Amino acid sequence: MTKSTPSQSSSLDDWLCYLESVHPANIAMGLERVAQVADDVGLLGTSSKIILIAGTNGKGTTARCLESLLLAQGHTVGTYASPHLIRYNERVRINGAELDDQFHVDAFDLLEKGRSDTPLTYFEYATLGALAIFKRHAVDYVLLEVGLGGRFDATNIVTPFASVITTVDLDHKEYLGDTRELVGYDKAGIFRTNTPAIVGDLAIPHTVTDYGKKINAQMHLSGRDFKFVEHATRFSWQCKEFNYEFDKPAIPCQNVATALTTLKVLGLLPSEAVIRRCLNDLVVEGRFQKLSKSPLVYTDVAHNPESARYLARKLAQYKDKGFKIHALAAMLADKDKVTVLKEVSPLVDAWSLAGLDCFRGDTVDNIAKSMDAVNTNAPIERFDSVDIALDSVLPRLDEQTLLIVFGSFITVAAAINYWKK
Predict the structure, then answer these.
(1) CB of 378 within 8 A of CB of 349?
(2) Quick one: which of 3, 27, 107, 190 could link to 132 by a disulfide (CB 3.0–4.6 Å)?
(3) 95 located within any domain
């Protein structure tokens, strides 16, 4: 039974509980409903220039890099990201800062009054709510992260100033398909005719470029129009007349290169000194985030094969320094657990598996079954939750062991909250 409708004086928690109850599905593909509501409440006409960002991985870090570089030049920026780690307010930032609850409440109240009897999913409410907040603040630029795929995602109702695809890999196969070509075609749906389309993937599926050519998008492709090279402590980026070298940032160099190329294409690239300063200060929560120096503990949202490969490369750097790796993994039920665990397994000296008691969360027994398909001789422990696992593991860590807590945004949130306590 649907809960009573909150009002403009209700709490954000009341609204979020309501939004979770008013649509029977967590995901509903298609743009007709959400576009109609957006039009009815006046969200499609905006002075802000929108950069639409899709990709299997790297959306959040690319958006954070773009945000930093635009703010450093005095532009006002609205950023929409999902999911959140700890608080819903993380999903919407104005000039790099989260907003008070009332801004979200006002946006949801506007949508509820304007949607009539049109059903919206939680994500569609969140997306339209973000657009309402950005319009209210009249920001210069909006960085809009695509939630799922691209073509039929709620974010794709906008008219982008530029479209960006960070990476293409397998995730959400039940919606997007089980090949990179199918996934790439879906993500290319955010391209527009005669509009810049920047693709950062290192092995771009032909379906992406085929679609871009078909609609005459202004494509700028990794490996053809821009390149980056990683070194031990540095990385270089080349695009047309620009050839810069920087210290390695805390986020993947691939995503930095994609962000820099996007700004170059749009005529918004700041000076080399500004870029250097922004990259040195860039930190993104949950992306190989250090929680503790002693014992050495990191956490990472890696939850699909591509992000697991990136995590493995980060862990290998510590392995080369003589560290042992203890992995604490907790994942969602609908993820490719076997492949994710296999990517990291060769580096792991001991495993702790934990269950996630949440929507879509998997049990520790199911994660253990996935480990049966992983070729490892490392010892494996089981725990009912991330908290219980940390209580057990942390006292036993020595100075030459790194603990990595990974597997989902919910896993990272649990680790961060544990440290805050």
Answers:
(1) yes
(2) 107
(3) no
